[in-house]
Amino acid sequence: MTVVVLAVICAVLLAGHLVALLRRRPRGLGTAAERATFDTLHTAGQAAKGLRGGLTASGAERAIKHLRPLLGASAVALTDLVTTLAVDGHGHSHAVDPYAHGSVALAARRSVVLGPEDMACPADCPIKAAVVVFPVFPRV
Description:
A hairpin with a 4-residue loop joins β1 (75-79) and β2. By secondary structure, the chain is of the alpha+beta class. α2 runs antiparallel to α3. The model has no long low-confidence stretch (mean pLDDT 77). The longest helix is centred in the N-terminal third of the chain and has 23 residues, at 2-24. Helix content is 49%, strand content 12%.
C-alpha cells in the first residue's frame, strides 16, 4: 500500500512539473532573430501583393511603400525600361532616367552602383548614390 501511495504522489508531482514547464514555454516568435525574420518576410509579402499583376504603375505604387523600409533606403524608384512607375522617399523631384540608368546595368550584366555624377544630381540633391539592379528575365 505504501508503494502505491508513493507511486501516486510521484505521478502527481511529475504531472505538475510537466504542466509548469509547458506554461513557461514561449509561444509564437520567441527570439529577436525569429521576429526579425517574420517581419522581413511579412513586409516582402506585402510588397509582392502589389506586383502580382505584373510591373504596372498601380502595382508599383502599392509595392513601393513596403519596399523602401524593407531595403532601408532613403528613396526607392521602380521603373520599367521606358518610364518611372513609382518613387517613394527623399528625392521625389529627382529625375530618374530608367533607360539611361538601366542600360548601365544591362551592359555590365550585373547590378551597379551609380554616384551623383552618373545621375546628373544637382549640388543640393539628397540622393548620393543609386543601386540599379540587373533584371532577371524568365527563360521562355
